[in-house]
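Appendix B. Raw example, untouched.
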Amino acid sequence: MNEETTKSPHQYTRVNIWEVADEKEIADIFATSEEYKKYLDQVRTEREGVIWFTTFAESKGFKNLANLDSVKAGDKVYYQFENKNISLAVIGEESIKNGVNIVGAHLDAPRLDLKVRPLIEDSGIAMLKTHYYGGVKKYQWLNIPLALHGVVIKQDGTKVIINIGDKEEDPVFVISDLLPHLSRKIQGDKKLLDGIEGENLNLFVGNMPMKNTKYTEKVKAYVLEELYKKYGIIEEDFISAEIEAVPAFKTKDVGFDRSMIGGYAHDDRVCSYAAVMGLVDIKNTPKRTSIAFLTDKEEIGSNGVTGTDSVALPNLVAELMYREDKTYHEIELRRALNRSFCLSADVGAALNPIYASVHDKNNVSHMGSGVIIKKYTGSGGKGGASDASAELVGKIRRIFKENNVVWQASAMGKVDEGGGGTIAKFIAQYGIPVVDCGLGVVGMHAPYELISKADLYHLIKGYNAFYQNA
């Protein structure tokens, strides 16, 4: 008698999507993943995410809310904020005063930011100094090809777009590690996570000196000359720039069966993508207004004007309410928020069997077993968690079951092993009931992460069901 037949019918059983999916669903799963891979290769920064979703929204008939004086049921709108925050909404049949359904995800990802004065020369090598952004294992960023993406704002206000390293003909940049022959003392006696210092995360960007000059830093001078010729920028322009070093890897299928996707920044661009795809898949006017809220700065605490710990979300709802009824009152906005529901759409830690000991096996997500519902995140004694109510978790379970969405329960890891947070607690501060609901990732925050194609498909399906039924 096998394990399944010995279980009580009342026991919770995790489902493997590949085992229960029919041929049509499997074909849809693979087709969906192809479109997602294209998106992930094109969106390397939060700014590029806003541009991509703006173009996509307009192709699907969404209008810029800033250009509209009013909204009505069935309207599709988008709203940008500071180039790093974008929301898409489908206006529902009910008044916005009755609340809205929100899927909130973030567009930023762990990376290396250039310092404000990054360019240096040492021993005939020109380098760019960086400051890592978010929780990274610094050693993972060594000896891999890196690309530079971002913007430079010149003194006259001109914006210069930087995108170097992704095209086949582009150069790439590298942070070089110490060879093993000489690393025994300087690295070998240190703990793994302490072996690389943040101040040493410097990109090699040049080795050719400028000839026939009296400059003391001839290699740096040559690099500056190239930057001026190609982009019209000078060294001082770095001070008003936002340039990110990101992996130059292409998104690829993983495995003999091609069941997984390897790529940079599944966390959290997979949830941002799914939030929008679930929204545009709404066929008829939903009962309640539905919003995909894509924010910034989650990896460093959700602070700043474009982070979730700001007024970006209530301001968005206020903008919608004002266009629905210009006589609305502040108290109606507060009540509308309290009548809303939100899924904090962020990824979770899927089981890596090589390191299974850090997980509680009864409370860990598995790749290929569907959407993950996390009642709480945080660490230790639930520190930093919003801890969703039993009523809300029950509501989401019901919606997923009624719409054939495969889901699983999940937690970050063992109680005292570590942990992490999401945007949920910042959504909750507005009185919005919120629960974490995303997708499992193996190797989270690494330059190359893994997800399941089947999970992605059901994530989009799950968000779509939430928009129409919460």
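End of appendix B.
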